[in-house]
Amino acid sequence: MIDLAQTREIAIKSDTGMVYRFALVRITSAQWMKYFSGILSTSEVKDREITYSFDNTKAIMELVQSALVNATGYRLPAGVNDITQVHLWQFKIKTSHCMGVGNALLHVRAAEQEDGEAMEIGVEPIRLRTVWGATDKGEMVVHSDLVHRLRTPTAEQAHRYRRDLSRSKVVGGSRSGKTINLNAQPTLAALYDELIDSVEGYEVNGQPLVGADMIAREMDAYHKVVAAEQLFAPVSVAEAEEEKKAE
Amino acid sequence: MSIDPARDTQGMQAALRELLEESLEFARVKDSMETAAEATRESMLGSLPPRTLAAGYYTAAEHLFWLEARLKVGAALVLSFAEADGLVLLSRARGEFEHNHPPCYKCGKLQAGLFATSCHACGADFKKGN
Q1: Most confident region among A11-25, A36-50, B62-76 by mean pLDDT
Q2: Looking at the partner chain, which of B53, B56, B75 has a beta carbon nearest the beta carbon of A169?
Q3: pTM for the whole structure
Q4: Which of B83, B79, B7, B78 is nearest to A168 (CA)?
Q5: How are strands ordered across the β-sheet holding A68-72?
Q6: Is residue B90 part of a domain?
Q7: How far is CA B69 from CA A244, B16, B63, B87, B110, in A?
Q8: Has residue A245 been placed in a domain?
Q9: Would A167 be classed as within a structural domain?
Q10: What ipTM score was computed for the predicted complex, to two decimals?
Q11: What's the structural domain count of chain B?
């Protein structure tokens, strides 16, 4: 069970086996939206070859630095007992450590549906798998029991998503320019709020999330985006070889 | 200065035309591609007409194709101005495309050009006033 209101702990292990632990304050929806707007996703065509690039380094660093409230495992200057006494300590954390923390925040994936689980008509259960919280040994705890039940989007809601997904701006000329894709995550988060029915695996200060309003208010925005994105992901069809007729 | 592809009329016209031409060529080589060797497949893909614009134009154009298909089956969607204008461009580009690629009177497959003498798919003869 994930308690969304509690300080979030993330542990990373260095190559030398040292464990560094980080405490992060609850990340607000506004902080996530700032992160999404900072992602730079581009594509460029040269000699018929298309090159895609994705850069979230600056955005994730800023998100982590804005959410950090404590860190342990580091050697501190003489006379200092607590890292928070170090001026601007969040900005002195090694980049690779910040990125490691960021990767843990972004580690939210769609999980397989349970075998034999029939879907309720009009409501789509989305299962997510994530890491949230750390053990005493410094290992991240995997949560694979997270369920978001979302109502099936209307054609207009699908349209809003598709429209925002297709938005971009081109810099450097229409023919040889670079395409900067504009992010559709805010739309996905908004669609989540419109479509959410119920969730499992989350709580706030020990209380279950009940009702669409409470879920929309309390749910982590990144989890909202990943869950809502699954509504529009294509489902693969089962294939079977044609049976050969006996001659 | 940046361009919003969806609002660049000339660019969108070109992207829509190129995608329509590409779909025709792709349909022509698709069957052979399924059974072709990897190297041949790559060369077939390389023979598709080149895309001459930045990728954002094609993403915006593909959205118009998606939209057009939904509207055709009666989905009630609220369009933005750019989408409405884009659908007009798509309608014009499609009309021009259909004029330039008439279907075979026998099998219905679209032809490479106006002056084909026989159908590339079924071999039907176009010279006898058909």
Answers
A1: B62-76
A2: B56
A3: 0.86
A4: B7
A5: A8-13, A19-24, A68-72
A6: yes
A7: 37, 15, 10, 11, 19
A8: no
A9: yes
A10: 0.82
A11: 1
* Residue-number span of the structural domain to which A133 is assigned: 2-230
CB contact under 8 A, B55 and A167: no
In this structure, of A1-5, A18-22, A232-236, the range with the lowest mean pLDDT score is: A232-236
- Report yes or no on B28 lying in a domain: yes
Is there a contact between A177 and B3 if contact means CB atoms under 8 Å apart? yes
DSSP A62-117: HHHHHHEEEEESS---TT--SGGGSTTGGGGS-HHHHHHHHHHHT-EEE-PPPTT-
* Polymer length in residues for chain A: 247
Q: How far is B52 from chain A (nearest CA, A)?
A: 6
With a CB-CB cutoff of 8 Å, which residues 49-78 of chain B face chain A? 50-57, 59-60, 62-63, 66-67, 70, 75-78
The domain tally of chain A equals 1
Evaluate whether A63 touches A28 at the Cβ level (below 8 Å). no
In a domain, B83, yes or no: yes
Q: Which of B53, B78, B80 sits opposite A174 (nearest CB)?
A: B53
In angstroms, the separation between the Cα of residue B20 and the nearest Cα of chain A is 18
Which of A44, A49, A161, A163 is the best residue to mutate to test the B interface, defined by the most B CB atoms within 10 Å of its own CB?
A163
Asked if residue A243 belongs to a domain, the reply is no
Task: Kindly report, residue by residue over A78-104, the tens digit of the pLDDT.
Answer: 888 899 999 999 999 999 999 999 999
Q: Which domain holds residue B89?
A: 5-100
Question: Is B127 within the bounds of a domain?
Answer: no
